[in-house]
Amino acid sequence: MVTWLDDVTAKEIRTRSFELAVGERSVPGLLWTPPQGAEAGPLILIGHGASGSKSEGYVVALARGVVRMAGMAVCAIDGPVHGDRRLDGVQSGPLPFLQFSQVWANDPTVTDAMVDDWRAVIDELSKLPDVDGTNVGYWGLSMGTILGLPLVAAEPRIRAAVLGLMGLAGPTVERLRADAMSVSCPIHFLVQWDDQLFPRERAFELFDAFGTTDKILVANPGEHGAVPDAAFKASAAFLIDRLGQAAHRVN
Asked: Which helix (H) or strand (E) holds 221?
C-alpha cells in the first residue's frame, strides 16, 4: 500500500513524496515527473550511494535534468539504514556509511530486500497515468550498484542501466559476479581511475563479467567521489537514448 505525501509543482517539474509498505518495511521515496496531465513516459530509478539519501543533491539534480530533457519520470528511494529509513534523523555522513558496511557484511537478506522494494515501487508507480512501468532504466553508483546490479539482473522491465564505482569485491562478490553474468540489457559503466574504495582493476573485472555485449566503460581521473558533471550528464543521456529506443520499438 502506498501513502502519497507532498505533491508540489514548481518550474515545470512535479515532485511527489511517498511511503510504500513492502511487508513490514516502509519504503520512503520521491517521484519527479512533468506537470500533471503529461502522457506516460519511461521510468528511471536512481539508487543513491552510501552516506547519502534519495534527497542527495546529485540525485535531485539528475532527476530534474532528466524530466526537463526528456519528459521521463524519475524515482529515488532511500537505501537500507539511510535517509528516512533511519530513526535518528541522520540523513548523510559517515554514520550511515559505516552502518551500511556492517549490514552489507552481516545481513545476507539486505540485497534481496532492496530488490523486492524496488520491484514493488515499479509495480505501484506503473498504476499512475504518467508513468510507463514497462520501460524502465536504472542509475546507481557505488552502493547504488551493490544493491542495484542484482535488481537489473532480476527485473526484465529494466531496459538499460548505468552502474559503476564498484568492482568484484566485498561481502557479496560472488552474488555480484553471478548477477553481472546474467545481465542482458545495455550497460553504461563508470570507473574512477584513482578510486580508493574499489580499485579500477576490480571494476574492470566487474565490467568484463557483464553478460551483455552492449556495454560501455567510461573512466575518469580522480578518487571515488570525484565523478565529473560531464559524466553525470553523459550517463543520463545514455538512459534517455536507450529508453527512447525501447519505446520506439514497442510503438
From this structure: none
